[in-house]
């Protein structure tokens, strides 16, 4: 919490919040003194002039206290909101740089909880800190001193009531704090189930699994609700205990005070003032204890937020990166590359060696799970290799900043991802200042122009995840976005699989004729031989190893795996 406060609170507004809080406390503490004077010197002596002047003073002090409180609330709340805003921005920025390893460490649902619910906990405690946490101790100490100064004989009552209250607060904290901490984890679980249900809603309905999913959600929801009920039930005991102690304390004070007044050794005004201070002491004590109940929950949240912000990136930029020059020509080479997913026993890819140059196409073919996507994901450094060297345009990729490396590469992932917006905004992801002509050209090459025209042109709406387009249309839009970006290496990871044979052939021939792509290296991952047959170099992958490498003709003549794949596909088509 302290770390977050230090980094994100602004000095001047925080200081102003504290200063106005002090004014408010001073006003609250001054009021009982005026009341006491008003009773002893005004009411008891029936001095109407004095009553008017002290009454006026009370009004002014109360009004000033109110204004100070309002100003304090304004600065405390705006600061807390700003801290929340900064934390959300920092988390989002950080997450955008996370590799898959870091993503899977936290999990998407937990990252959402951390950037919403956890930050709200921190915000709430920030407001409490700038109000109650500072106000309560100042008030508590000052009211104790002033009460003692008013009537030391009555302070005996506190020797019983304060320890009773302290024991009650400690007991409540002991039971409630662990529950508050676990509530955050349970929120993660609710989000996880909810998110899975939302993304898989069609599958759930198609398999008639609504009841099963509903009961899975209910379990997570019940778990969260029951923990919350338990925690707040325990905390709710604080108020009755506090009211009881407050009433008993007042009875004790009145009882003792009445004796002293009867003995003529104390004035009525003093008793009234003392009782006000006593209420202030007990309320401050309770506020302070409430804060101590909520601090652990917020500090658990702060830890969860700090864990994300402090996460070291597995894939880091080099300390002295090589600068890109315009002179370099497109090329891609793998030298003895081995790769393994973190925690995996077996190497996912072994002994990869190839070299490909501007204007050439590299195709990667292989069965499911053979390592095709893993291989292409190594090029933009989505994962780091264990051994060997990968060079893009002659630069070893680990010597470039990731920003520079990503400038050289344009990729269509296996699962086409589109963002909500318009066709134009999605295309501008590839090139920020793309003109309409450039966008239409990319759409033509990607065989997407026709359906985009039908959908209403470049301003046609794209729903979340591109849900208003078919799988094949989404793939073509993703391909167009890849093509529009000026790059040295164009990667299409199984991007043609949802296209029919005719569109696939037309698209590949348009890619070959495109000026931009002719100067670049094209990498195509595919399962269909027809998609890869025209490539300059074909890698045949099997279980992470290259079992064949060469042109289509060479592989047809010499490579068994390739021949088997070809035969099985010819037979399939014949059927
Ligand atoms: N993020 C990951 N963490 C751990 N293992 C992974 C990860 N992604 C893939 N794998 C494993 O690596 C191997 C290669 O997977 P990869 O996705 O590269 O295959 P692929 O040839 O692209 O398959 P497909 O054609 O089905 O897409 C598989 O055994 C898979 O289980």
Explain how this protein is built.
- The protein has 575 residues and is α/β, with parallel strands linked by helices.
- The protein folds into two domains: 308 residues, ABC transporter type 1, transmembrane domain (ABC transporter transmembrane region fold); 243 residues, P-loop containing nucleotide triphosphate hydrolases (Rossmann fold, 3-Layer(aba) Sandwich).
- The chain is 65% helix and 11% strand.
- α5 packs antiparallel against α6 and α14 packs across α16.
- The model has no long low-confidence stretch (mean pLDDT 88).
- Bound molecules: adenosine-5'-triphosphate (ATP).
Topology of this protein?
Elements: H1 2-8, H2 11-43, H3 48-96, H4 100-106, H5 108-150, H6 156-199, H7 201-206, H8 210-236, H9 238-262, H10 268-309, E1 331-339, E2 349-357, E3 361-366, H11 372-378, E4 387-392, E5 395-396, H12 402-408, E6 409-412, E7 421-422, H13 423-427, H14 436-445, H15 449-455, E8 461-462, H16 471-484, E9 489-493, H17 501-513, H18 515-518, E10 521-526, H19 529-532, E11 537-542, E12 545-550, H20 552-558, H21 560-574
Parallel strand pairs: 3-10, 3-11, 6-9, 9-10
Antiparallel strand pairs: 1-2, 1-4, 4-5, 7-8, 11-12
Adenosine-5'-triphosphate binds at residues 100, 341, 344, 348, 366, 368-374, 414, 494.
